[in-house]
Amino acid sequence: MKNNVCMIAHRGYSACYPDNTEIAFLEAAKNGSGGAETDVRITKDGVYVTNHNDEVTFEDGTELLVAEATYAELTAKPLKNTKSADTVYLCTFERYLEIMKENNMICFIELKGGFTDEQVKALFETAAQVYDLSKCIMQSFELGNLIKAREMFPELPLMLTYGSAEEDYKCCFDYGFSLDSYYGIITPEMIKEFHDRNLEVALWTVNDKEALDYCLSLGVDYIESDCFGGRK
Fold it and tell me: The dihedral of CA 162, 168, 171, 176: what is its sign?
């Protein structure tokens, strides 16, 4: 067992609070998470917000597409919340970064939807201004997105998100990308390949005790979970 594995709250403390919201990130910090993963989208008027799906669902049951609505429209009403009694609103990427900085947490950042080079550049320039790029890890299923990010930000930690055993993970070695893998397909041999190259391995999404014990036994660097936050 690797004692210094960093537990990452998947979309914040999303087992008990609506995912990707301010309270989910704050509660992840309170419960001892070493970091928090989030999904970033862009509103019609160019505000970076944290939301997994294309659409936002409000308390009254109505929906708006993030990319087709302004930030004012998207925050005019509370979000649907079936997990706690809290009134919650759409969270900005900047507020997420502030919470991460206040608690010295690692940022796992996945870009959702179409991002231009200029938008990627602006997003991580914001991350550098508000927090620290060395604490921010960009993740993507798309190798091309990571290559672009490497060109713009040579020092930014990058991870290929890996969800199928049929995919080619060895391409990471050509670019120095770490691996963000579904825990059910990782092998000790794969982990060794990355660690031998001083690259990191993260596993997702680990939500039961048996799976957690298994992932801890592998000696990976990060474990993403909706509910296990208190191990740094």
Answer: positive
Q: Is the pLDDT of residue 2 over 80?
A: no
Q: What is the pTM of this model?
A: 0.96
Asked whether residue 74 is domain-assigned, the answer is no
Q: Which residues pair with 160 in a beta bridge?
A: 140, 179
CA distance 69 to 62: 13
Determine the structural domain holding residue 200 and report its residue range: 6-41+96-225
- Domain of 33: which CATH number? 3.20.20.190
The DSSP secondary structure of 147-204, one letter per residue, reads HHHHHH-TTS-EEEEE--TTS--TTHHHHT-EEEEETTT--HHHHHHHHHTT--EEEE
Give the number of domains in the chain.
Answer: 1
